[in-house]
Structures are given as C-alpha cells and as structure tokens.
Write a structure and sequence with these properties.
It is a single chain. By secondary structure, the protein is α/β, with parallel strands linked by helices. The chain has a domain of 221 residues: NAD(P)-binding Rossmann-like Domain (Rossmann fold), CATH 3.40.50. It contains 12 helices and 15 strands. The strands form 5 sheets. Strands 3-2-1-4-5-7-12 form a 7-stranded parallel sheet, with helices on both faces. It has a two-stranded parallel sheet with strand order 6-15. Strands 8-11 form a two-stranded parallel ribbon. Bound molecules: uridine-5'-diphosphate.
C-alpha cells in the first residue's frame, strides 16, 4: 500500500512507519516536529520507500497534496500529553479539531481509507472495568483544561462518523489506552518514561495524587500491527475500536515495579495534583478497556507484560540495545 502517516516523528507514528516499511509499503510521513523527534525516524530515513515532509496538518493545501495517491492515511498528528494540553490549550484544540478536519476532507476527496488515532480519554471519568466502544462518556467541566483533549477527539470522531454515513468516507477509529514503549518521552507528562528516567537517574519517582488511580499499559509493538490490520479489514469500516492491555495497575504499584525492574534505589515521592498540574486538575480513577472487538476483528491480543514494557523502556533510556524491527515482528 501507499500510506500517509501524520505525526510521523512521534512515538507511535515512527514505530508504525518502521513496521509499514518492513512490510514493503511506501510511506510518506508528515510532522511539524512540535513534540515529535526526527531522530525517531533514523531507521526509516535510510529506506528509499520513505519520504519525510515537515509541515502541519493545519496546512490544508499541504495535507490535500500529500494525500493524493495514498491508499491509507494514518492520522496520528495531535497535540498530546497532559503538560501540552495544559500549556497550549488553544493550539491543542486547533490542531486536534481543524487539523483532523483537514485530514478527513483530504482522505474523502482522494478516496483514501482513514485510520484515526482517537483516545481512551474519550471515556473520561467512566470507571467501568472493561469499557466498551459504545459506553458513555463522563467528562468534567469545559472550564478544566484536561477535558479539552477528549472534547476535541470526540468532535473528530463525530465528524468521521458523519462523513462515513453521509459522504461514504472509508474510515476506522482506534482508541489506544496508555500506549507505551521506547521513543516515548516523559517531557509532556507520560508516566512510564518519566518513572523510568527518574529511576535510572536515582531521582525520586513522582507519584501524582495518592497513587491509587488505575491504568492499563500496552506496548507500542502490540498496538502497531493492529493499526495496520484494521486499515485493510473491511469489517472494521465505520467502527471505533479499543486497543489496549487489560492488565490493571495502580500508579503507586507502577512506581514500585519500575524500581524493581530497573534495580533502582530511588525513593517514591507523592506530589499533589495541584502541584503537578496546577489548580483545578481532575484525574480519572480508573481506565480499563474491553478489547473484545479488536480481538474479533484482527486477533488483537497484547503479548507484552508490564514488566517487559518497563524493561524495554529502561533499555532504551539507559542506552542499551532495543531493536524495534525484531520486536515488531
Ligand atoms: N502520573 C504520575 N506521575 C508522573 C506522571 C503522571 O503519577 O510523573 C500519573 C497521572 O497523574 C495519571 C497517570 O500517572 O494518573 C497516567 O498519566 P499519563 O499522563 O501517562 O496518562 P493518562 O492516563 O493521564 O492519559
């Protein structure tokens, strides 16, 4: 296939590109390098079937031109990370709403299949164990910046649904749940690379709140093949599909596991949400997916345990070998 990947230099985008290239596909990658890192594309840049374009999804003409000839558009470009959404709320909303609208229109115009990276944030404060794709969203006040990310992604999903029904857009929505692995930076808030870096540096691990909040972490190497399989599965058309692990862990436990896996003697330090994110922050107490649909559609079944995930991140941050090409097969 010929694929356009937006958010090419980001964490998931760059792993997706490596996998697409390994499968023999032709790939164009678009990224504005705002939070992405060109170094993530080091392997891809050696491949003649890959072309990198620096630019924003807010540039309608550019997105339109790059989509011409693509069979599939993987739209991963977005403002992400709790600190980004806090510090650049307006820019984040614009990128995540208008940028996505540009990508949708271009995909529709050029008859490309759109694979849209939505988010598990969509479910907000719904604490159901085993969130299903048609479960309710429980979002906090619009006055709290945290919910602007889920809000924007929900607008995107609604637009895609409407284009699918009214304009025959070919599209699949995916909702990744706390995807982690090498190349993810902790700079914008993501907890696993933050804890691992802190542990390896002998710094305190910063647990926000009381640490009882629950998440399920899934390795990027489990998520990427499912993205590719969903792109070409006719039964996935017009659906929203959860992708994540169901192994629950509290953030307090996560900190202990990171210490155990890395052999670090760092202390664990609790920090209030107010100190961590500023006033008025709201967290979700638990976020656990039901991934039955992804299992039925593309045989999705995560292989990496939490300890293996932590180990792969620690190897990369610690400068030890981690070979994405091997892991992704
Ligand atoms: N978190 C933490 N310490 C950190 C960074 C994050 O305790 O240094 C917490 C955060 O408040 C949240 C969880 O870890 O409860 C997961 O945060 P992340 O930003 O990785 O993903 P989220 O699930 O919030 O989208």
């Amino acid at each position: 296939m010929r694929a356009l990947v937006t958010g090419a230099a980001g964490f998931i985008g760059s792993h997706l590109i490596d996998a697409l290239l390994a499968d023999g596909h032709h790939v164009t990658g678009l990224d504005d390098l705002s939070t992405g890192d060109h170094d993530n594309l080091a392997q891809a840049m050696t491949e003649p079937r890959f072309r990198f374009e620096s630019g924003s999804v807010l540039d309608h003409a550019r997105v339109e031109a790059l989509t011409a000839g693509a069979d599939v558009v993987f739209h991963l470009a977005a403002a992400v990370g709790a600190f980004v959404i806090r510090d650049q709320t307006l820019e984040g909303l614009r990128t995540n709403i208008h940028g996505t609208e540009n990508v949708i229109e271009a995909a529709r115009w050029h008859n490309a299949t759109l694979v849209f990276a939505s988010t598990s944030e969509i479910y907000g404060k719904n604490t159901t164990i085993g969130l299903r794709e048609d479960d309710d969203r429980v979002l906090g006040s619009t006055l709290k910046f945290r919910w602007s990310y889920a809000e924007a992604k929900a607008v995107d999903e609604s637009l895609i649904n409407a284009y699918y029904r009214a304009r025959a857009l070919s599209a699949v929505i995916v909702r990744p749940f706390n995807t982690v692995g090498p190349r993810q930076t902790g700079r914008y808030g993501m907890v696993v690379p933050r804890f691992v870096r802190q542990a390896l540096a002998g710094e305190p691990l910063t647990v926000f709140g009381d640490g009882s909040q629950i998440r399920c972490f899934c390795h990027v190497a489990d998520v990427v093949p499912a993205l590719i399989a969903l792109a070409t599965n006719p039964r996935a058309q017009g659906r929203a599909v959860n992708l994540g692990s169901t192994e629950q862990v509290t953030i307090g436990e996560l900190a202990s596991r990171v210490l155990a896996v890395t052999g670090s003697r760092s202390e664990i330090r609790h920090i209030s949400y107010e100190e961590a994110y500023g006033p008025g922050y709201e967290d979700m107490a638990r976020r656990v997916p039901d991934c039955t649909l992804a299992g039925e559609l593309v045989g999705f079944r995560p292989r990496y345990t939490l300890d293996q995930i932590i180990d792969s991140v620690a190897r990369e941050i610690g400068g030890r070998a981690w070979r994405p090409a091997e892991t992704l097969r």
